[in-house]
Write a structure and sequence with these properties.
Length: 330
C-alpha cells in the first residue's frame, strides 16, 4: 500500500491538461523526444494499450524491460511491475502514470510476516509470483509469473521442498498441475476472487457453445469448470487459435480490448462477479489514464526507485526466472 508520505516524496503532478490537446500526438512526440518506451499490461484502458510500444502479460513485460534500449521506461501497469522494470534497469528512469496503482495481491504479503513464515520453513526454497513487492522478491529464491509458474516448479528436483507465495489460488493450481506439495502463503487477488460460479454456470447454459477461459488467480471451483486456464497472453492466444465463436472470460476486463481487436468476428463475454457490479475492473490498474501517461512523460514523474539494500537480492531471484524461462523458450 502506497502511503501519503511516500506519494509526497516521489512527487506527483497536479497540472490541468487542456481538453484541446491531442494526447495521442503529444505522447508520440514525447516518446521520440525523450527516447521513451511505453510498456502496458493487458489490463490497461484501451487508449493506453493503443498508444503503447508493447502490450503484454507480466512475463512479456519483464522480458521487454530487460532488453529495451530506451532511456525512459513509462510503465502503464501497477507498482510491482514498474518496480520489476527498475530492478532490471537500475540506471534507467522508470516512471508510472499513477504511483498509487498498487496490487491487492502484493499487499497481502507483508515482508516482516513473510520473513517469519520463511524462517519457519528453513529447508524450503521460496518461489514467489511476480505480483509481490521488491522486499518479497529479495526474500525469494526464484520469481515466476502465471505463464511460467508450472515450468519453474518443475525445473526443481522432485524432492525439493517449496514455499509458494503470495497467491494461494495460483499456488493451488500449480500444486495440482505438478503433483507437488507446495507450502502456500495465504494471499489472493481481489479481482479474481469475486467471480460467481453460479452466474458463470447460468451463462454456460445460455451459451452452450461458449468456452470458459480463466486466469489461474481465480478460485479452484472456477478453474475446475474452465475450458482453458492461462495467463493473459495465454488466454488471448487460445481465443485467437480456437475455432469457437463465443468465450466467457474470467479475468480483468482490460484483456477484452485486445481480444476484440484480434478477433472482431468472435464474442467475448466478461465472467460475472459475485456482486451487483457488471465489470471486472482492477481498481489499481484503472487508476492510470491517457492524461496521466502524458503528464508522467512530460514531467518524468513519479519515478520508481528501489531501496538499494533490496536491489541485488531481488534482482537475483528475478534473473533466475528470466534465465529458466529463456532456457525453456518461454
Ligand atoms: P499475467 O500478466 O501473468 O497474466 O497476470 C495477470 C495479473 O494479475 C497481473 O496483475
Ligand atoms: Fe493485483 Fe489483481 Fe489488480 Fe492484478 S488484477 S494488479 S493481481 S489486484
Amino acid at each position: 500500500m502506497i502511503t501519503q508520505n511516500e506519494l509526497e516524496r516521489v512527487g506527483y503532478v497536479k497540472e490541468q491538461v487542456s481538453a484541446r490537446l491531442d494526447l495521442f500526438e503529444e505522447i508520440k512526440r514525447l516518446k521520440a523526444e525523450k527516447n521513451a518506451i511505453i510498456l502496458a499490461h493487458y489490463y490497461q484502458d484501451g487508449d493506453i494499450q493503443d498508444i503503447a510500444d508493447y502490450i503484454g502479460d507480466s512475463l512479456g513485460l519483464a522480458q521487454q524491460a530487460e532488453k529495451t534500449k530506451a532511456d525512459i521506461i513509462v510503465f502503464a501497469g501497477v507498482h510491482f511491475m514498474a518496480e520489476t522494470a527498475k530492478l532490471l534497469n537500475p540506471n534507467k528512469k522508470v516512471v508510472m502514470p499513477d504511483f498509487r496503482a498498487g496490487c491487492s495481491l502484493a499487499d497481502s504479503c507483508p515482508p516482516a510476516d513473510f520473513k517469519k513464515f520463511k524462517d519457519a520453513h528453513p529447508d524450503h526454497i521460496v518461489i514467489s509470483y511476480i505480483n509481490c513487492t521488491a522486499a518479497i522478491k529479495a526474500l525469494s529464491d526464484i520469481i515466476c509469473t502465471s505463464s511460467n509458474a508450472v515450468q519453474i516448479v518443475e525445473s526443481l528436483p522432485k524432492d525439493q521442498k517449496i514455499i509458494f507465495a503470495p497467491d494461494k489460488n495460483l499456488g493451488a493450481y500449480v500444486a495440482k498441475k505438478t503433483g507437488r506439495d507446495l507450502v502456500l502463503w495465504d494471499g489472493a487477488c481481489m479481482v479474481h476472487e469475486i467471480f460467481s460460479l453460479q452466474k458463470i454456470a447460468k451463462l454456460k447454459v445460455e451459451h452452450p457453445d461458449a468456452l470458459l477461459l480463466a486466469h489461474p488467480e481465480c478460485e479452484e471451483p472456477i478453474l475446475k469448470i474452465a475450458d482453458f486456464v492461462g495467463s493473459t497472453t495465454g488466454i488471448l492466444k487460445f481465443a485467437k487459435e480456437n475455432s469457437a465463436k463465443t468465450f466467457i472470460v474470467a479475468t480483468e476486463s482490460g484483456i477484452l480490448h485486445q481480444m476484440q481487436k484480434n478477433c472482431p468476428e468472435k464474442t467475448f463475454i466478461p465472467a460475472p462477479p459475485d456482486n451487483n457490479c457488471a465489470c471486472n475492473d482492477c481498481p489499481h490498474m484503472k487508476l492510470n489514464t491517457l492524461e496521466k501517461v502524458y503528464l508522467c512523460m512530460k514531467h518524468e514523474l513519479p519515478e520508481v526507485n528501489i531501496d538499494p539494500q533490496l536491489q541485488a537480492p531481488a534482482l537475483k531471484s528475478l534473473k533466475r526466472m528470466l534465465e529458466i524461462s529463456a532456457s525453456l523458450g518461454l
